[in-house]
Amino acid sequence: MSVDLSTFNSLVQRLETVADRLEKTGGSAPADAASASGGSNDPAIVIAFDGFLKEKSLPLEAAASSLAVNDVNEATQFFFEAMRLLRGIFVATGKCCKPKDTDWGKFFGPVMELQQKAGKACDNRSDYFHHRKAAAEALGLVAMVTVPGPAGHVQNVLESMDFHGIKVMQKKDPAQTAWINALKTFLKDLIPFCNDNIKMGVDWKVGGEDPVEYFAATPLGSAPAAGAPAAKAKGKGKGGAPPPPKGGFAAPPPPDADSKPKSAPSGGMAAVFGAISQFKDGTGGLKKVTDDMKVKNMKDRAAVEAPKPKPKAAAPRVAGRFAKGPKGDPMKVFNEQQNTWFVQNYEGAVTLDEADKAHVVRVTDCKNCTVKITNRVKAVAIDNCERVDLECSDVISAVECMNSDRIKMKTTGTVHLFCIDKCDGVNVWLNKASIAAEILCSKSSEMNVTIPDDQGDEYDTIEIPIPEQFKTTVTGRKCKTEVSELYSS
Which residues, other chains included, contact 403 with Cβ-Cβ below 8 Å and sequence gap of 6+? Predict the structure, then answer.
C-alpha cells in the first residue's frame, strides 16, 4: 500500500514556520508580556498567565490605590503575592514531572504561611474586616494546580468569598464597591482562562525533575518575579520541548522478526498505514478461538466456572417500615450536650428517677415495656416502639409518639400537649389536671382518650375515640372539613 506524504510534509513545514514566527513575537500575548515572562524557555501557560495578570491586575490595583486604606492595600498585596506563587508553580511545570499526592505539602509551605498570615490579619473589630476576609478566601486559588478541574475550583473559591463580598457592597461606598467588584471580576475572568489553557488540569513535563528536589533547591516564592532575564530557550514548541524534525519523524525501530507483518512498509507514516491494512479481514493476525476452547464445550466446566455468591438475606421489615423493638443491648444513658435521656432496646420495666425539668426523655426501640418517669421533665418522645406503656408526671412541652404501635400514654401530673404521628392503637389517659390538654394527630388510626368520669365514682373512667375519619366539602374557593358522623353519638 503506497501513501502520498507530500501533503503531510508540506503541512509540517508550514507549522514549523508558524511556530518560529510565534516564538519570535511571543505568541498572541503583547510584546511586553512576552518579555515579562522571562523568555521563550517558559512554558506556554506562564506566557498566557503573564498576559492575564497584566490585563486583570491593573483594575484591582487601581481600586485599592483609590481607596487608600492600609487594610485593603495589605489584603490586595497578599492576593498579588499568592498570584506570584501560582506563577512559580506554572514555571515549574516546564521542568518537573507531576507531583505525587503526598508531595504537595512538601513544597506548599509558602502558600500555607501566606494564608495563615492573611487570616491572622483579619480583625473583626475593623471596619474593613470583610475586605480582608474576601481577599483571604481568594488566596485559595493557588490550590487549583492540585485538582483535575481548575475552573470548578475557582468557581468554588468565588462562591466562598461571596458572603464577605456582599457585606462590603452593603456599605454602598463607591470606592469599596469598586474594589470588591475588581477582585470578583479577576476570579470570574480566571474561569474562562482555565478552560482555555488548563481545562483538564495543569500539564507537567513528562520525565522531568522531581518537584520536591526542584523546590528544595529553589523554594516556592524565591524565584525572580516576572520581567527578570531568563536563560535562553533550549528548543521550540510548548514547554521547551525540541521541535519536530523537518521532513517528518523517523520511522520507529522495527519489531521482532516473528511479529512483523510481511506486507508492512517501512518508514514514517507508511508504516502506520501498513499496520492498519492488516485488519481488513477483521482479525489483524490474532489467534482464532476454536469451538473446543469455549467454556460451554469444555468437559470439566467446574474448573473454570466461578461459584455464584449466595444472595444476602434482607433486613426484616414490617408494613414497609423497619421492624420495631430492640435492636441491641438495653441502654439508659444521658447525653449532656443535648440534655437528653435515651431509653433504648428495653423489654420489661424501667424507671427513670434521674431526669429533671431541663431534660428531654427519648424512648426508642422498646417492646413490651413499661417506662415510668417520676420527676417533672421538659419533653417526652416515643419512637419506633411496640406495646409500650408510658407513665409520666409533669411535662413542660409535649409528649410525642411517632412510628409506634399499641402505645398507652398516662399522665399523673400536668401535660398540655400530646402529638401522635404515624401510629396505630394509641390510648391517651388523662387525669383531672390534664383534662384540657390538646391532642394533635396525623396519619394515625385506632386512637382513644380515657378521662375520669365526673358523674360517677372517682375511679370510673370514660373512653372516647379520637376521630380519624373526616368529611370534606368544597364551599366556594375553600374546603370545609368536619368530623365524620360516626363520632357524633
Answer: 321, 324, 383, 384, 421, 422, 423
- pLDDT tier at 10 (50, 70, 90 boundaries)? low
Please say whether the beta carbons of 392 and 373 come within 8 A.
yes
Instruction: Quote the CA–CA distance of 265 and 286 in Å, as a whole number.
Output: 20
Place of cell 470583610: 130
Strand 478-483 relative to strand 461-465: parallel, antiparallel, unpaired? Answer: unpaired
Q: Determine the Cα–Cα distance for residues 183 and 168; give it in Å rounded to an integer.
A: 12
Structural domain spans, the chain: 18-217, 321-487
**pTM for this predicted structure:** 0.41
Please tell me what DSSP assigns to residue 210: -
Does the pLDDT value for residue 238 go beyond 50? no
pLDDT band at residue 429, thresholds of 50, 70 and 90? very high
Enumerate residues 6+ apart whose C-beta is below 8 A from 454.
none
Q: State mean pLDDT over 179-196.
A: 90
The rounded distance, in Å, linking the Cα atoms of 145 and 198 is 9
| Phi, psi values for residue 221, rounded to 5° | 100, -10
DSSP E strand boundaries for 326-460: 331-335, 340-344, 348-352, 360-364, 367-373, 379-383, 386-392, 399-402, 405-411, 417-421, 424-429, 438-442, 445-452
In contact, 96 and 210? CB cutoff 8 Å: yes
Neighbours of 102 (CB within 10 A): 8
The CA distance from 63 to 73, in Å, is: 10
Q: What is the CATH number of domain 18-217?
A: 1.25.40.330
Residue 342 to residue 350: CA distance in whole angstroms: 12
φ, ψ of residue 478 in degrees (nearest 5):
-130, 160
Q: Which residues contact 409 (CB under 8 A, 6 or more apart)?
A: 382, 390, 392, 399, 401, 418, 426, 427, 428, 429
Contact 448, 466 (CB under 8 A): yes
Query: Distance between CA atoms of 5 and 70, rounded to whole angstroms?
Result: 66
| Number of other CB atoms surrounding residue 332 within 10 Å | 15
Bridge partner residues of 352 (DSSP): 373
Could you tell me whether strands 321-322 and 317-318 are parallel, antiparallel, or unpaired per DSSP bridges? antiparallel
Q: What is the pLDDT confidence band of residue 93, given thresholds at 50, 70 and 90?
A: confident
Distance, in Å, from the CA atom of 56 to the CA atom of 183, rounded to the nearest integer, reads 9
**Tens-digit pLDDT profile for residues 274-326:** 555 555 555 555 667 777 777 777 666 655 555 666 665 554 544 444 678 88
Are the C-beta atoms of 303 and 309 separated by less than 8 Å? no
Is CATH 3.40.50.300 what the domain over 321-487 is classified as, yes or no?
no
CA 155 to chain centre: 13
